[in-house]
Amino acid sequence: MKKLAVLLTTFILSSCASYSVTEGEIQDYLDNRATFERTVGIKGLAYANVKFSNIKVGIGRVADDRVSLDAKSQAKLMISGQRPQDIAIDVSFSAVPYYNKEEGAIFLNDLEVESLDLTPDELTNFAGKQLLSSIVEMVGQFILTQPVYRLDEHDAKQSLLKTARPELLIKNHSLVVQM
Q: 0.85 exceeded by the pTM?
């Protein structure tokens, strides 16, 4: 009888289980995990050292089915024969969220650059423009390969959802993982 009660309870919970992940939760998750420093280009010719550490999250703000990410990066651009130049790069992306069952995490797909601002705002040489393109691509790849949120297996509701085949929806500026 106890087994039947447990099975019935599990079935009822699984048929109506959902968990909302707010912008704040995703922001906290990324604040603790989304930093990196990399070098792109060819040292001695043209390269940039990039530090990326600040992402701001919006859910359903650019479009109903997209997550927006405003990323701030600092780069030190070094081109042979020129003095090093510090560049601030503010890039806004939007992407479609999806749930990866194997990892129990929410990732982003279909990344689009919405806006790009540089300080200083002009790169006059070809090498600088090529490095900027590589920097934006590198930041985009980082965003696509890292989860924006991972379900917590120590939370009963999240653990239950993690083992199922949940659907991911955007509602009221939150990501809703539901069965």
A: no
